[in-house]
Amino acid sequence: MTDGRRPRLADVFPVLADEIAELLRAEGDPLADAVADLPCHGRCACTAACTVLLTAPPGSSGSVVVPLERDGIGVFLLSLDPSRTAITGIEVLDGRDPG
């Protein structure tokens, strides 16, 4: 648990969290170290088909979007806060069900 109320993303979606951290590390991005402790606020509820996992309260989506690719194919889009120091949401692009 991160704050006593929200489970960590790494506890709810361990494979996904590991993959995101791995892709960020490959780019030398210091956010890789924060992925394990991100809180999981569940799926975005904007539509039933939305593939965004919230790592901040609903409505906190960031203004900066960072694509993560594997072999030239988009895997995730990370929404970051304006300071680019916190991941506020993760869009899963590769067709897997984020849960």
What brief labels describe this structure?
single chain; 99 residues; alpha+beta; four-stranded antiparallel beta sheet; 4 strands
What oligomeric state do these chains adopt? single chain
Low-confidence stretches: none
Strand order of the largest sheet: 1-4-3-2
> How much strand?
15-25%
Task: Please tally the helical runs, counting DSSP H or I stretches of 4 or more residues.
Answer: 2
Largest sheet: 4 strands, antiparallel
| Overall pLDDT metric | 90
Could you please describe the fold and organization of this structure?
The chain is of the alpha+beta class and 99 residues long. The chain has one domain. Helices cover 17% and strands 24% of the residues. It has two helices and four strands; from the N terminus they run ααββββ. Strands 1-4-3-2 form a four-stranded antiparallel β-sheet, covered by helices on one side. The longest helix has 13 residues, at 14-26. It starts with 8 loop residues before the first helix and ends in a 7-residue tail after the last strand. The mean pLDDT is 90.
